Amino acid sequence: MKIEKRWIVSFIIISLAAITGLLWQHEPASGDVFNTEDSINFADVAWLLTASCLVLLMTPGLSFFYGGMVGKKNVISTMLKSFICLGVISLLWVVVGFSLSFGDSIGIVIDGKTYGIIGNPLQFAFFDQVETKPHQVLGSSIPFILYALFQMKFAIITPAIITGALAERIRFISFLLFICLFTLVIYTPLCHMIWHPNGLLGSYFGVKDFAGGTVVHMSAGFAALAGVIVLGKRKNSEHIPTNIPFVLLGTGMLWFGWFGFNAGSALAANATAAMAFATTTVASASAMLTWVFFDRLNGRKVSALGACIGAVVGLVVITPSAGFVSIPQSMFFGFIGAIVSNKMVYWKKLKQIDDTLDVFACHGVGGIMGMILTAIFAQGENASLLHGGISVFGHHMMALVLVSFFTFGGSYLLFKLTNIIIPIRVSEESESMGLDLSQHGEKF
Q1: Residue 25 pLDDT > 70
Q2: Would residue 101 count as lying in a domain?
Q3: Fewer Cβ in 10 A, N or C end of the chain?
Q4: Could you say which DSSP state residue 119 is in?
């Protein structure tokens, strides 16, 4: 059997990373940055361990959610593209991703202070200094290793979300290359700019993103939009979802895991976590019902697929503000987010570019709506437009434009670069055969 050179190169890269990690000289955690283990709060540790497990479960849940929606010839390939992120991004995160996201800031100096665009890539390389002592700023009551692992799960699911837009026509090895480039070039700087204490968007612009509406959903949504433009339409863009029970199962796993996603982002077992837990489920419930009733008002039948999509949209919309808003406000978030995303799903111009599973309409638009609504409703003194924070609202809108251009433009260039290195579109014959057989030699 002939083995393509690209697979040999990929194996060599993995081998070199493993050997380098073994030989890497690790430095002990510095007392200037880390607290002693006596400062660990065991209730917080228990909750964050649980939350990390919940967030990890979301990626298999996403694979069922997407896998049930595609045609029968592409179920396995679609599910695998989500599932493989657990392996690829986990290792990438350990090697350099965490360091780029949360290492010391490298960026712009304003009034004598550095506002970060990216982290020092060597500071936490191969989890150097990522040990059991709590970081003084990043999760000060939990071991730093737990903070790093919790953040890892967010990095994993972000490129997995993109897969739904590219289903049924993207080459597997090209997809692996793209998600590595996306994580390093798009996700890590965005994560640093918003979630690092000295990040440019979070610290200087005051952008609020409690659990990833901007970092995760907007970045994935705009990357998905760029991907479908570069890939082009499928030869047969009409199909019937193969397995609606898979979609229902995936939605349940996502909803369950989202409690770790949002409530876990409080980084402690506290009142904020409890409120985020509550707003998460209320927004999703509101969006689910709004979606199915809005479908009926527009002459469409009430469907299990619509209920599932609505529930997920509600989860997306509430994510950036889960810990910042009240229960009634979260209900409104789900209501308005579902209507806007529903209109986008059925918008003819968006249908023309063939976003297979409407990733941009749900995650991209949902993330945008969440960011705007957060800037309007987030509670606290001068925290949002309704609380006297006119400048905060303006900064959010500026950041919205910057993030949109950065994630779409950057992803578009990365797809083009990937296509130069390894063609990203499968052949017409492979597409007709289905990616399960042509790419993986398996059948659903």
Answers
A1: no
A2: yes
A3: N
A4: E
